[in-house]
Write a structure and sequence with these properties.
Blueprint: H1 2-34, E1 38-51, E2 58-69, E3 76-88, E4 91-105, E5 113-128, E6 138-149, E7 157-170, E8 180-191
Length: 193
Amino acid sequence: QRRKFFADQEKEENEDEEQETEAMDGSQYADAELTVITVRGSFGFGYTMGMGDFSDFSGFNAAGKMKISPPDFPLRLVGILQVNALDYNNQNQDVNSVGAGIEYPLGTYSEIITPYLSAELSAVYLHGVYYNSNAFNRLGAGIGVGAEIEPEGFPLIFDAEFKYRMVNLVNKLPDEIDISVMQFWVHFLFPML
């Protein structure tokens, strides 16, 4: 009986040690998840309207994003490449840009929608009948509001955004009007890393 008692006690101690090890491993795994950098990409289309002196122009846009979410950091870092094919009196005017910015998530609502505020700086290339820059030599800026939408049971995540962009804040020509646009687009998000 004494031998059985010690065997049972040793078995209980081994089980306790295994549970502690599993708990530590789970905790370490959770901590590792929190310290991983998340990188996602997106691509989509939308509509662009000219504003102010540029209000006669309108058309469609196509854009891609790369969103980087560092651990323990409240902002997402965003790279943006976009093309705006605009039209006025059947004359084409393209406003293309490459830029970098940030997104500030405002929390998740209903476990489906994560709204955010956004801001960006971009190098702009103008090409068309009215304005030609021949290089990415205009500096622009934009501010926006958007939301990542993840419908329950649906395999895709959507990224919808409204953005106001001032296209030629820096380095515009003396006879060049102030070019600003309002954009709306919907993107499909996908994991990259």
